[in-house]
Amino acid sequence: MVVLSPCFAAAGLCVLSAVETVTATPVARQSGFSLLLSNDDGWAEANIRALYEEATTAGYEVLLSAPAENQSGTGSTSVEPTPLTEPGEFDSIPAGSPAEGHNTTDDHIWYVNAHPVDAVQYGVQNLSSTYLGGAPSLILTGPNVGSNLGIVTQFSGTVGAASEGVKLGIPAIAFSGSGGSERSYTELAAGDYSFIYAQASLRLADALVNSGASPLLPSGTALNVNYPDAGAGTDCASADDFKFVLSRVYSVLGLPVDVTTCGSSSLPTESSVVGTDGCYASVSVFNADSKLDAGKSAQQAVLDSLSGILTCLPS
Ligand SMILES: *[C@@H]1O[C@H](CO)[C@@H](O)[C@H](O)[C@H]1NC(C)=O
Ligand SMILES: *[C@@H]1O[C@H](CO)[C@@H](O)[C@H](O)[C@H]1NC(C)=O
Ligand SMILES: *[C@@H]1O[C@H](CO)[C@@H](O)[C@H](O)[C@H]1NC(C)=O
Protein backbone atom coordinates (compact mmCIF):
# COMPACT_ATOMS: atom_id res chain seq x y z
CA MET A 1 0.00 0.00 0.00
CA VAL A 2 1.54 3.29 -1.14
CA VAL A 3 1.01 6.22 1.19
CA LEU A 4 0.72 9.37 -0.90
CA SER A 5 2.64 12.40 0.22
CA PRO A 6 0.11 15.22 0.63
CA CYS A 7 1.72 17.18 -2.19
CA PHE A 8 2.25 14.23 -4.52
CA ALA A 9 2.30 14.70 -8.29
CA ALA A 10 0.44 17.72 -9.65
CA ALA A 11 0.42 21.09 -7.96
CA GLY A 12 -2.92 21.88 -6.41
CA LEU A 13 -3.33 18.36 -5.10
CA CYS A 14 -2.17 19.06 -1.59
CA VAL A 15 -5.43 20.15 -0.01
CA LEU A 16 -7.74 18.18 -2.25
CA SER A 17 -8.45 15.61 0.42
CA ALA A 18 -9.64 18.39 2.70
CA VAL A 19 -12.01 19.70 0.07
CA GLU A 20 -15.32 21.16 1.21
CA THR A 21 -17.53 19.80 -1.55
CA VAL A 22 -20.43 22.14 -2.44
CA THR A 23 -19.94 24.66 0.35
CA ALA A 24 -16.93 26.45 -1.20
CA THR A 25 -17.37 30.04 -2.35
CA PRO A 26 -17.59 30.07 -6.13
CA VAL A 27 -15.05 32.08 -8.09
CA ALA A 28 -16.81 35.06 -9.71
CA ARG A 29 -16.92 34.75 -13.50
CA GLN A 30 -18.35 37.08 -16.10
CA SER A 31 -21.98 36.25 -16.62
CA GLY A 32 -23.06 35.13 -20.04
CA PHE A 33 -23.22 31.93 -21.96
CA SER A 34 -22.25 28.97 -19.82
CA LEU A 35 -20.68 25.63 -20.70
CA LEU A 36 -20.59 22.36 -18.79
CA LEU A 37 -17.68 20.13 -19.83
CA SER A 38 -17.50 16.38 -19.27
CA ASN A 39 -15.92 13.30 -20.82
CA ASP A 40 -15.29 9.60 -20.29
CA ASP A 41 -11.48 9.66 -20.27
CA GLY A 42 -11.42 11.26 -16.83
CA TRP A 43 -11.23 14.74 -15.34
CA ALA A 44 -7.42 14.89 -15.47
CA GLU A 45 -7.05 13.90 -19.14
CA ALA A 46 -5.25 16.51 -21.27
CA ASN A 47 -8.00 17.06 -23.87
CA ILE A 48 -10.72 18.15 -21.43
CA ARG A 49 -8.34 20.43 -19.51
CA ALA A 50 -7.19 22.03 -22.78
CA LEU A 51 -10.85 22.66 -23.64
CA TYR A 52 -11.44 24.09 -20.16
CA GLU A 53 -8.51 26.50 -20.59
CA GLU A 54 -9.51 27.57 -24.10
CA ALA A 55 -13.20 28.01 -23.25
CA THR A 56 -12.37 30.05 -20.16
CA THR A 57 -9.99 32.24 -22.18
CA ALA A 58 -12.70 32.67 -24.82
CA GLY A 59 -14.92 34.24 -22.16
CA TYR A 60 -17.39 31.47 -21.50
CA GLU A 61 -18.48 30.67 -17.98
CA VAL A 62 -17.18 27.12 -17.67
CA LEU A 63 -17.78 24.27 -15.24
CA LEU A 64 -16.01 20.92 -15.58
CA SER A 65 -17.62 17.83 -14.05
CA ALA A 66 -16.08 14.57 -15.19
CA PRO A 67 -15.25 11.09 -13.87
CA ALA A 68 -12.42 10.68 -11.36
CA GLU A 69 -11.04 7.80 -13.47
CA ASN A 70 -10.89 6.65 -17.06
CA GLN A 71 -14.46 5.45 -17.78
CA SER A 72 -14.13 4.79 -21.50
CA GLY A 73 -16.80 2.55 -22.93
CA THR A 74 -19.35 3.01 -20.14
CA GLY A 75 -21.95 4.38 -22.57
CA SER A 76 -25.10 5.58 -20.80
CA THR A 77 -24.67 3.41 -17.70
CA SER A 78 -24.94 4.98 -14.27
CA VAL A 79 -23.50 4.04 -10.88
CA GLU A 80 -23.72 5.58 -7.41
CA PRO A 81 -20.69 7.87 -6.83
CA THR A 82 -18.44 6.46 -4.08
CA PRO A 83 -15.43 7.76 -2.11
CA LEU A 84 -12.09 6.92 -3.72
CA THR A 85 -10.49 3.73 -2.42
CA GLU A 86 -7.44 4.30 -4.67
CA PRO A 87 -5.77 7.47 -5.99
CA GLY A 88 -7.73 9.15 -8.82
CA GLU A 89 -6.55 9.29 -12.44
CA PHE A 90 -2.83 10.07 -12.87
CA ASP A 91 -2.61 10.47 -9.08
CA SER A 92 -4.70 13.63 -9.35
CA ILE A 93 -6.82 12.77 -6.27
CA PRO A 94 -5.63 11.12 -3.05
CA ALA A 95 -7.16 7.81 -2.02
CA GLY A 96 -9.84 8.30 0.62
CA SER A 97 -11.19 11.49 -0.99
CA PRO A 98 -14.97 12.03 -1.08
CA ALA A 99 -17.14 10.81 -3.97
CA GLU A 100 -17.23 14.32 -5.45
CA GLY A 101 -14.67 17.10 -5.07
CA HIS A 102 -13.02 19.98 -6.82
CA ASN A 103 -9.56 21.23 -7.69
CA THR A 104 -8.08 23.03 -4.69
CA THR A 105 -7.38 26.33 -6.44
CA ASP A 106 -10.18 26.27 -9.03
CA ASP A 107 -13.61 25.33 -7.75
CA HIS A 108 -15.00 25.14 -11.30
CA ILE A 109 -13.06 21.90 -11.95
CA TRP A 110 -14.87 18.90 -10.40
CA TYR A 111 -14.47 15.16 -10.35
CA VAL A 112 -17.26 12.67 -9.68
CA ASN A 113 -16.17 9.14 -8.82
CA ALA A 114 -18.72 7.42 -11.05
CA HIS A 115 -19.60 7.18 -14.75
CA PRO A 116 -19.84 10.01 -17.32
CA VAL A 117 -23.64 10.05 -17.04
CA ASP A 118 -23.36 10.60 -13.28
CA ALA A 119 -20.80 13.37 -13.72
CA VAL A 120 -23.17 15.19 -16.10
CA GLN A 121 -26.12 14.71 -13.74
CA TYR A 122 -24.09 16.00 -10.82
CA GLY A 123 -22.86 18.97 -12.84
CA VAL A 124 -26.36 19.94 -13.97
CA GLN A 125 -28.34 19.06 -10.83
CA ASN A 126 -25.91 19.76 -8.00
CA LEU A 127 -23.27 22.22 -9.23
CA SER A 128 -24.57 24.46 -11.99
CA SER A 129 -26.82 26.69 -9.87
CA THR A 130 -23.91 27.50 -7.53
CA TYR A 131 -21.11 27.72 -10.08
CA LEU A 132 -22.87 28.84 -13.27
CA GLY A 133 -25.79 30.71 -11.74
CA GLY A 134 -28.24 28.30 -13.37
CA ALA A 135 -28.41 25.42 -15.80
CA PRO A 136 -25.59 25.36 -18.37
CA SER A 137 -26.49 26.81 -21.78
CA LEU A 138 -24.62 24.03 -23.60
CA ILE A 139 -22.77 20.84 -22.69
CA LEU A 140 -19.55 19.86 -24.49
CA THR A 141 -18.14 16.38 -23.91
CA GLY A 142 -14.63 15.22 -24.77
CA PRO A 143 -12.73 15.73 -26.90
CA ASN A 144 -12.56 11.96 -26.53
CA VAL A 145 -9.19 10.27 -26.97
CA GLY A 146 -9.96 8.17 -30.04
CA SER A 147 -12.76 8.33 -32.61
CA ASN A 148 -16.40 7.59 -31.84
CA LEU A 149 -17.79 6.65 -35.24
CA GLY A 150 -20.80 4.54 -36.24
CA ILE A 151 -21.72 1.66 -33.93
CA VAL A 152 -19.01 2.69 -31.41
CA THR A 153 -21.25 5.62 -30.43
CA GLN A 154 -23.54 3.14 -28.67
CA PHE A 155 -20.80 2.33 -26.12
CA SER A 156 -18.96 5.63 -25.88
CA GLY A 157 -19.15 7.33 -22.50
CA THR A 158 -18.44 10.65 -24.22
CA VAL A 159 -21.51 10.18 -26.43
CA GLY A 160 -23.38 8.84 -23.37
CA ALA A 161 -22.52 12.00 -21.43
CA ALA A 162 -23.79 14.27 -24.22
CA SER A 163 -26.96 12.18 -24.52
CA GLU A 164 -27.54 12.51 -20.78
CA GLY A 165 -27.31 16.28 -21.08
CA VAL A 166 -30.05 16.29 -23.72
CA LYS A 167 -32.22 14.05 -21.51
CA LEU A 168 -31.81 16.70 -18.79
CA GLY A 169 -32.97 19.35 -21.28
CA ILE A 170 -29.56 20.86 -22.13
CA PRO A 171 -28.23 20.94 -25.72
CA ALA A 172 -25.04 18.92 -26.05
CA ILE A 173 -22.19 18.12 -28.43
CA ALA A 174 -19.85 15.12 -28.19
CA PHE A 175 -16.34 15.64 -29.63
CA SER A 176 -13.77 12.94 -30.42
CA GLY A 177 -10.34 13.00 -32.05
CA SER A 178 -8.46 10.11 -33.58
CA GLY A 179 -5.10 11.55 -32.56
CA GLY A 180 -3.05 11.20 -29.39
CA SER A 181 -3.32 8.92 -26.41
CA GLU A 182 -4.59 9.26 -22.86
CA ARG A 183 -2.27 11.38 -20.76
CA SER A 184 -2.35 13.82 -17.88
CA TYR A 185 -3.15 17.50 -18.32
CA THR A 186 0.22 18.17 -16.67
CA GLU A 187 1.83 17.09 -19.98
CA LEU A 188 0.07 19.79 -22.03
CA ALA A 189 2.52 21.91 -24.04
CA ALA A 190 2.15 24.94 -26.31
CA GLY A 191 0.93 23.91 -29.77
CA ASP A 192 -0.34 20.61 -28.36
CA TYR A 193 -2.90 18.70 -30.45
CA SER A 194 -5.22 18.92 -27.43
CA PHE A 195 -5.33 22.72 -27.81
CA ILE A 196 -6.01 22.36 -31.55
CA TYR A 197 -8.97 20.05 -30.83
CA ALA A 198 -10.16 22.43 -28.12
CA GLN A 199 -10.02 25.50 -30.38
CA ALA A 200 -11.76 23.66 -33.22
CA SER A 201 -14.51 22.57 -30.81
CA LEU A 202 -15.00 26.17 -29.73
CA ARG A 203 -15.18 27.30 -33.37
CA LEU A 204 -18.15 24.96 -33.77
CA ALA A 205 -19.71 25.90 -30.42
CA ASP A 206 -19.27 29.62 -31.22
CA ALA A 207 -20.93 29.15 -34.61
CA LEU A 208 -23.91 27.47 -32.96
CA VAL A 209 -24.17 30.06 -30.18
CA ASN A 210 -23.83 32.97 -32.63
CA SER A 211 -26.46 31.49 -34.95
CA GLY A 212 -29.08 32.57 -32.43
CA ALA A 213 -30.89 29.27 -32.95
CA SER A 214 -33.49 28.68 -30.26
CA PRO A 215 -33.40 26.00 -29.06
CA LEU A 216 -29.69 25.69 -29.92
CA LEU A 217 -30.25 22.15 -31.20
CA PRO A 218 -33.48 20.42 -32.21
CA SER A 219 -35.31 18.91 -29.24
CA GLY A 220 -34.08 15.44 -28.22
CA THR A 221 -30.98 15.55 -30.44
CA ALA A 222 -27.25 16.06 -29.93
CA LEU A 223 -24.26 16.40 -32.25
CA ASN A 224 -21.49 13.84 -32.66
CA VAL A 225 -18.32 15.51 -33.96
CA ASN A 226 -15.20 13.56 -34.98
CA TYR A 227 -11.77 14.92 -35.85
CA PRO A 228 -8.90 13.28 -37.71
CA ASP A 229 -5.36 13.40 -36.32
CA ALA A 230 -4.16 16.91 -35.43
CA GLY A 231 -0.89 18.64 -34.64
CA ALA A 232 2.40 19.46 -36.32
CA GLY A 233 3.04 17.27 -39.37
CA THR A 234 -0.65 16.42 -39.91
CA ASP A 235 -3.20 17.99 -42.26
CA CYS A 236 -4.72 19.68 -39.19
CA ALA A 237 -1.82 21.76 -37.91
CA SER A 238 -4.14 24.48 -36.65
CA ALA A 239 -7.78 24.73 -35.53
CA ASP A 240 -8.61 26.83 -38.60
CA ASP A 241 -7.67 23.92 -40.87
CA PHE A 242 -10.76 21.91 -39.86
CA LYS A 243 -13.54 21.82 -42.42
CA PHE A 244 -16.81 20.68 -40.84
CA VAL A 245 -19.10 18.46 -42.93
CA LEU A 246 -22.68 17.44 -42.06
CA SER A 247 -22.69 13.64 -41.85
CA ARG A 248 -24.67 10.68 -40.61
CA VAL A 249 -23.70 8.06 -38.00
CA TYR A 250 -24.85 5.02 -39.98
CA SER A 251 -24.77 4.22 -43.66
CA VAL A 252 -28.17 3.78 -45.37
CA LEU A 253 -26.83 2.44 -48.67
CA GLY A 254 -27.22 5.75 -50.47
CA LEU A 255 -30.98 6.05 -49.89
CA PRO A 256 -32.08 9.71 -50.18
CA VAL A 257 -33.46 9.98 -46.64
CA ASP A 258 -31.44 12.99 -45.53
CA VAL A 259 -31.61 16.74 -45.79
CA THR A 260 -30.46 17.98 -49.20
CA THR A 261 -27.05 19.59 -49.11
CA CYS A 262 -23.88 19.52 -51.19
CA GLY A 263 -26.02 18.41 -54.15
CA SER A 264 -27.29 15.23 -52.52
CA SER A 265 -29.96 14.01 -50.12
CA SER A 266 -27.71 11.23 -48.84
CA LEU A 267 -25.26 12.55 -46.27
CA PRO A 268 -21.79 10.99 -46.14
CA THR A 269 -21.12 8.73 -43.17
CA GLU A 270 -19.03 10.25 -40.40
CA SER A 271 -16.36 7.59 -41.05
CA SER A 272 -16.05 8.63 -44.69
CA VAL A 273 -15.77 12.31 -43.74
CA VAL A 274 -13.00 11.75 -41.21
CA GLY A 275 -11.31 9.36 -43.65
CA THR A 276 -11.19 11.93 -46.47
CA ASP A 277 -7.72 13.30 -47.26
CA GLY A 278 -7.38 16.82 -45.91
CA CYS A 279 -8.69 18.01 -42.58
CA TYR A 280 -12.40 17.13 -42.54
CA ALA A 281 -14.41 16.86 -39.32
CA SER A 282 -17.79 15.10 -39.30
CA VAL A 283 -20.91 16.57 -37.66
CA SER A 284 -23.76 14.07 -37.21
CA VAL A 285 -27.14 14.87 -35.68
CA PHE A 286 -28.34 12.00 -33.51
CA ASN A 287 -31.26 11.12 -31.31
CA ALA A 288 -30.13 11.19 -27.66
CA ASP A 289 -32.37 8.27 -26.62
CA SER A 290 -31.55 5.80 -29.40
CA LYS A 291 -28.19 7.27 -30.48
CA LEU A 292 -29.37 6.67 -34.06
CA ASP A 293 -29.40 9.30 -36.79
CA ALA A 294 -31.96 12.08 -36.35
CA GLY A 295 -34.47 12.74 -39.12
CA LYS A 296 -34.39 15.16 -41.99
CA SER A 297 -36.04 18.08 -40.18
CA ALA A 298 -33.51 17.98 -37.32
CA GLN A 299 -30.68 17.79 -39.88
CA GLN A 300 -32.21 20.79 -41.67
CA ALA A 301 -32.29 22.84 -38.46
CA VAL A 302 -28.60 22.11 -37.81
CA LEU A 303 -27.70 22.79 -41.44
CA ASP A 304 -29.41 26.19 -41.13
CA SER A 305 -27.82 27.18 -37.84
CA LEU A 306 -24.32 25.97 -38.80
CA SER A 307 -24.46 27.15 -42.42
CA GLY A 308 -21.58 29.56 -41.78
CA ILE A 309 -19.19 26.80 -40.81
CA LEU A 310 -20.36 23.70 -42.72
CA THR A 311 -18.77 22.79 -46.02
CA CYS A 312 -18.90 19.97 -48.60
CA LEU A 313 -16.48 17.12 -49.22
CA PRO A 314 -14.41 17.51 -52.40
CA SER A 315 -16.24 15.85 -55.28
C1 LIG B 1 -5.80 22.53 -10.14
O1 LIG B 1 -5.78 23.70 -10.94
C2 LIG B 1 -4.52 24.36 -11.00
C3 LIG B 1 -4.66 25.57 -11.90
O2 LIG B 1 -5.81 26.27 -11.63
C4 LIG B 1 -3.45 23.43 -11.52
O3 LIG B 1 -2.20 24.08 -11.45
C5 LIG B 1 -3.42 22.15 -10.72
O4 LIG B 1 -2.50 21.25 -11.30
C6 LIG B 1 -4.81 21.53 -10.70
N1 LIG B 1 -4.81 20.27 -9.95
C7 LIG B 1 -5.67 19.27 -10.25
C8 LIG B 1 -5.50 18.02 -9.46
O5 LIG B 1 -6.54 19.36 -11.09
C1 LIG C 1 -9.21 3.62 -20.58
O1 LIG C 1 -10.16 2.57 -20.62
C2 LIG C 1 -10.27 1.94 -21.89
C3 LIG C 1 -11.42 0.95 -21.81
O2 LIG C 1 -11.31 0.13 -20.70
C4 LIG C 1 -8.94 1.33 -22.27
O3 LIG C 1 -9.06 0.76 -23.56
C5 LIG C 1 -7.86 2.41 -22.26
O4 LIG C 1 -6.60 1.82 -22.51
C6 LIG C 1 -7.84 3.10 -20.92
N1 LIG C 1 -6.84 4.15 -20.95
C7 LIG C 1 -5.90 4.29 -20.02
C8 LIG C 1 -4.93 5.41 -20.22
O5 LIG C 1 -5.84 3.58 -19.04
C1 LIG D 1 -27.90 16.14 -6.24
O1 LIG D 1 -29.17 16.67 -6.60
C2 LIG D 1 -30.20 15.69 -6.66
C3 LIG D 1 -31.42 16.35 -7.26
O2 LIG D 1 -31.73 17.54 -6.60
C4 LIG D 1 -30.42 15.15 -5.26
O3 LIG D 1 -31.42 14.15 -5.29
C5 LIG D 1 -29.10 14.53 -4.76
O4 LIG D 1 -29.24 14.10 -3.42
C6 LIG D 1 -27.96 15.52 -4.85
N1 LIG D 1 -26.71 14.80 -4.59
C7 LIG D 1 -25.80 15.22 -3.73
C8 LIG D 1 -24.60 14.36 -3.55
O5 LIG D 1 -25.93 16.26 -3.10
From TrEMBL:
This entry's Gene Ontology molecular function terms read: metal ion binding; nucleotidase activity
Which InterPro entries does the UniProt entry name for this protein?
Answer: SurE, SurE-like_Pase/nucleotidase, SurE-like_sf
Keywords for this entry? Hydrolase, Metal-binding, Signal
Hey, what's the signal peptide range on this chain?
A: 1-24
> From start to end residue, where is composition biased (Polar residues)?
68-80
- Which stretches does the entry tag as region Disordered? 67-87
Cite the Gene3D superfamilies for this sequence: Survival protein SurE-like phosphatase/nucleotidase
Q: Which Pfam families match?
A: SurE
The UniProt entry, under SUPFAM superfamilies, shows: SurE-like
Q: Which residues form the Survival protein SurE-like phosphatase/nucleotidase domain?
A: 36-230
| Family statement | Belongs to the SurE nucleotidase family.
Name the PANTHER family for this protein: 5'-NUCLEOTIDASE SURE, PHOSPHATASE, PUTATIVE (AFU_ORTHOLOGUE AFUA_4G01070)-RELATED
Q: What is this protein called?
A: Sure-like protein
| Gene source species | Heliocybe sulcata
